[in-house]
Design brief:
This protein is an alpha/beta fold. It has three helices and six strands. Helix 1 runs parallel beside helix 2. The protein is globular, with a radius of gyration of 13 Å.
Length: 119
């Protein structure tokens, strides 16, 4: 499934080795954060609930506080249903935001690739 805000931001869900992978691309900001939240919520609504949900950020070049809030809010929901939410391949700017806010300690971080390949 792909959602989009023009060519600016998209999310694409695909199966991964540990559970669903949600690949995001574009700027993750006030305009696009609701799109990411909706896509994560849809992945979490799958039954049975996934034990792991990976959000692949390789295509995200920028993330602001609204994008970070979307990740943190959906992480809480994932945790409440016993789903581990991982972040994969964050770019340097996103990684710096996660580190500066302490959010890097809340998410297992993966380099590009391992759980992101289709089964």
């Amino acid at each position: 499934m792909t959602h989009g805000n023009g060519a600016r931001f998209t999310t694409t869900a695909r199966p991964g080795t540990d559970g669903p992978v949600l690949a995001a691309a574009g700027d993750l900001d006030l305009a696009s954060a609701p799109l990411l939240s909706r896509a994560i919520e849809q992945a979490l609504d799958e039954r049975p609930s996934p034990s792991v949900l990976t959000v692949d950020l390789a295509g995200v070049a920028f993330c602001d506080s609204a994008g970070l809030n979307a990740l943190l809010t959906t992480r809480t929901r994932a945790r409440n249903q016993s789903t581990e939410m991982r972040l994969a391949a964050p770019c340097e700017q996103v990684l710096m935001l996660l580190e500066m806010t302490g959010a890097d300690a809340l998410f297992p971080l993966e380099p590009a690739g391992p759980a992101n390949s289709p089964s």
